Amino acid sequence: MELFNVYPVNPINIVKAKGSLVWDEQGTEYLDLYGGHAVISIGHTHPHYVEALKNQLDKIGFYSNSVLIPIQQQLARQLGEVSGKSDYTLFLCNSGAEANENALKLASFHTGRKKIIAFNKSFHGRTSLAVAATDNPSIVAPVNQTDNVVFLPFNDEEALTKAFREYGDEIAAVIIEGIQGVGGIREASVSFLKAIRSLSDTYGAVYIADSVQCGYGRTGSFYSHDYAGVEADIYTMAKGMGNGFPIGGITIAPKFKASYGLLGTTFGGNHLACAAAVAVLDVIKEENLLQNAEQVGNYLIEELKKFDQVLEVRGRGLMIGIELPEELAQVKKDLLSINKIFTGEAKPNVIRILPALNITKEIADRFLTAFDERLKA
Ligand code: PMP
């Protein structure tokens, strides 16, 4: 049987990893500044994480959600603490798409409404509602197409206000990434997020903060929306939550009630996934990773802004987009083939940097030196 590759594949076989470094089978060392697309939050093979997963597997790997699973309670407690949202309810699932799918479903169920507001260049996942709210027609199948999703321009308060005035009583939810990831690292403005909050309150819509890529400490605060002083009704998360072990979740404001059966999953919140997620939160707290993300992130952003050839540096903390002129689009490929550095891309000429939250300044400097070398070449 042939394997269906979901992305174009680099013929590199990574066999070993530690922190922000990985090695291929020939022993060549690479810098990992992409973290498998914002998934590696506490670095590869962190000893506390490895031990926690091994211990859990020794005790019990899986039993159904129909019994008490204390480590789920522990995860909810710790997540409430680190996010400052102890009064929210946690529902556990397996991925970002599933988190958004369930958040949208819950919003529709709660409001009894069907319309969803999403934004240009959004990415929310590949399942039915999540992909319908994703602004990329090439990944939407006919069965996913729906008039219930309305796309508005990002950061355009006028268009948002107009939409709410016209059909506000039909809107179940507004779903937004605080910083668009796949869309090219674009940050929502504080006033835009405030407008979403206030219009959602006025018209009774649910404000969903897709924090799958921009959340979980990546920007220096736990949720990217925190800096705006705006609270969402539902936060969705995945990626960095399990540091590579599949787990997703949605945290739901106290005013919503999820009834039995409405949201559910066989694997969501299983013992191993929760052990991974608890270990991640332990390390985030123990090693002050929110602070590190802010410090090293700001340092990288400031240093990158000094390069003349760079058109724009966007983002916050360790979610960084470097926009280059089109004739320098090759830089990303050369960073990998010549300097052995993994980065991501959004459009051919935006380099995306999404490293582990415990990236050191030394690793950041190694990247800056290599980037300088590439631009000079
Ligand atoms: N939301 C955002 C903002 C994402 O970046 C992604 C993944 N790129 C998803 C949702 C979907 O997550 P998953 O691949 O885990 O389904």
From TrEMBL:
<dbReference type="InterPro" id="IPR050103">
    <property type="entry name" value="Class-III_PLP-dep_AT"/>
</dbReference>
<keyword id="KW-0808">Transferase</keyword>
<dbReference type="InterPro" id="IPR015424">
    <property type="entry name" value="PyrdxlP-dep_Trfase"/>
</dbReference>
<dbReference type="InterPro" id="IPR005814">
    <property type="entry name" value="Aminotrans_3"/>
</dbReference>
<dbReference type="InterPro" id="IPR015422">
    <property type="entry name" value="PyrdxlP-dep_Trfase_small"/>
</dbReference>
<dbReference type="Pfam" id="PF00202">
    <property type="entry name" value="Aminotran_3"/>
</dbReference>
<dbReference type="GO" id="GO:0008483">
    <property type="term" value="F:transaminase activity"/>
</dbReference>
<comment type="similarity">
    <text>Belongs to the class-III pyridoxal-phosphate-dependent aminotransferase family.</text>
</comment>
<keyword id="KW-0032">Aminotransferase</keyword>
<keyword id="KW-0663">Pyridoxal phosphate</keyword>
<dbReference type="InterPro" id="IPR015421">
    <property type="entry name" value="PyrdxlP-dep_Trfase_major"/>
</dbReference>
<protein>
    <submittedName>
        <fullName>Aspartate aminotransferase family protein</fullName>
    </submittedName>
</protein>
